[in-house]
Amino acid sequence: MKPSPAHFQHCLIAAACALLAGASAFAQSAPIKLDVDATDAPRKTLHAHLRIPVQPGKLTLVYPKWIPGDHSPDGPITDLTGLKVTAAGNPIEWQRDAEDMFAFHLEVPAGVSAVEVALDFLLPPSSSDFASAASATPQLLDLNWNQVLLYPKGAKAGELQCAATLRLPRGWKFGTALPLARAPGATVEFSPVSLETLVDSPVIAGAHFRTIELTPGAKPPHALDIVADSEGALDIKPEVARRFAHLADEAGALFGARHYRGYHFLLTLSDHVAHFGLEHH
Is residue 142 within 8 Å of residue 273, measured between CB atoms? Predict the structure, then answer.
């Protein structure tokens, strides 16, 4: 029997309804708010709280799987713990995907415009690996934002806006390429950026910190941010700093343009963290 045009129309309508029923409850009415408490970083623990704007319905949150500089889906999800989701103070049950361990399914209740996510990240003790290796000592922290966030499945990393804050141990200073909104005391507030930019903008912080301006007065500025396990390790030789400055000059001469608002070389001096060497531009 040949299907009628009305039959095809009915099938199209049914398919459209099915797509709408399965649509994500995510709604980017405001930036995702990510607050990271790193005051326990010397004890190898990070605490994070997210506020994600949503609308009622099914929602899938995912943990970053593909990380800049890595060449496999090796986001350090085995170190994620204490995951709790709430809305208006009430708990929301979540279920891990049966096949994709990086995905978490939940149902957003009616009348809810945002979900709150709390999680902890246990910083690895070993410095022998790369993707998931030691990044903190009692004196310093190398923070990679992908360690402490979830985001709605299907959202484009270049379009999804995130506003992050970072609370550091008392007396610690920090370096990053992220634009600052304000830094009142121990809590640093960064300007909203895309998820892509956030994950590609690590932070170094510690009790022993130093910034060297490599191109004073030049625009865009270039800086060498150094964090170390001791104050003595910050005593860099002038000729070494000059080499970094020459590198900035040579890059400008080679490419003829500066496609960034500022460049920060992030240098960690420690025998107890992994050799994270990435080119974040």
Answer: yes
